[in-house]
Amino acid sequence: MLSQIKMRQHIEENFKGVEDWKVNFDMLKAKRIELKKLPDSRKIDCVTINIVPFKGGIEDIFRKLTDALVETLETSIEKDANEVMTFVRGAQDKLGSNPQNVDEIEQMHKEAMEIEANKQGVSEMFNSLKGKNLMIKQQIGRGMALQELESKW
User: Fold this and answer.
1) What is d(CA 131, CA 123) in angstroms, rounded to the nearest whole number?
2) What predicted TM-score, i.e. pTM, was given to this entire model?
3) Residue 149: left (phi > 0), alpha (psi -120 to 50), or beta?
4) How far apart are CA 42 and CA 52, in angstroms?
């Protein structure tokens, strides 16, 4: 269990883009194929060695790594979705008011410029979020519900 926690912590600290998860999911898929190619037993001289328990142990490690990748990907999607939604709601609040005088118009203009300056970074995060959601759908068959966020974006 301790190694599982460290594995998740490592993933959370080092994985940022969708490509990080994709590379590892692809690597696991390839290694599982290699593992299936191993024989179930090996004969050395007059002794036959059963390799099935070894293969089972390796498959268990692969499963744990897959679980950690899926869980951290879901966490990353939730975190990014919350950040994008916070940005969208903040922008709606700032731009949704009705200015009554020149000072309020000036303040709204400053806020609009601030939103525009931050929009590119949030837009990249939103696109990455969609990529991560597509990846999670491919891995576990379901993704996060992002319809509300997409409609507000």
Assistant:
1) 13
2) 0.74
3) alpha
4) 10
